[in-house]
Amino acid sequence: MSVEGTWDLTISTPIGKIKAEVELRRDGDLLSGTAQGAGEQVPLRDVVLDGDQLTWQQAVTKPMRLNLAFAVTVAGENLSGTAKAGRLPASKVIGQRRVSAQ
């Protein structure tokens, strides 16, 4: 399964919906990427694709300093799952892969 590309995410948090953009790249067997949202861009850590299950971690400073752990299921051009920040309740995540202009 290919997950490379740019994904537009919506994260439903207790403080409201946050829009984010995740770009995933493959270098050989390794996946890497960046996330952008709330005025900052951060690298993704520990990006793993196991079947249709995609997980990664990232640290953000806006709207507050948090370490986030994402666990999503990829179904074609869509994904859904959760983002967890420490002891806080998990937030629902949905996303859609951006169609590249060719």
Low-confidence stretches: none
CATH secondary-structure class: Mainly Beta
- Largest sheet report: 9 strands, antiparallel
Task: Please report the total strand number as a whole number.
Answer: 9
- Give the SSE string: EEEEEEEEE
Quick structural summary:
This protein is mainly beta and 102 residues long. Helices cover 0% and strands 71% of the residues. The protein has a single domain (5-97), classed as Calycin beta-barrel core domain (Lipocalin, Beta Barrel), CATH 2.40.128.
Topology:
Elements: E1 5-13, E2 16-27, E3 30-37, E4 40-43, E5 45-50, E6 53-60, E7 66-75, E8 78-85, E9 91-97
Verbal overview:
The protein is mainly β and 102 residues long. The protein has strands spanning 5-13, 16-27, 30-37, 40-43, 45-50, 53-60, 66-75, 78-85, 91-97. It has one domain: Calycin beta-barrel core domain (Lipocalin, Beta Barrel). Helix content is 0%, strand content 71%. A 9-stranded antiparallel beta sheet has the order 4-3-2-1-9-8-7-6-5, with no helix packed on it. The model has no long low-confidence stretch (mean pLDDT 93). A hairpin with a 2-residue loop joins strand 2 and strand 3.
Question: Tags for this entry?
Answer:
single chain; 102 residues; mainly beta; 9-stranded antiparallel sheet
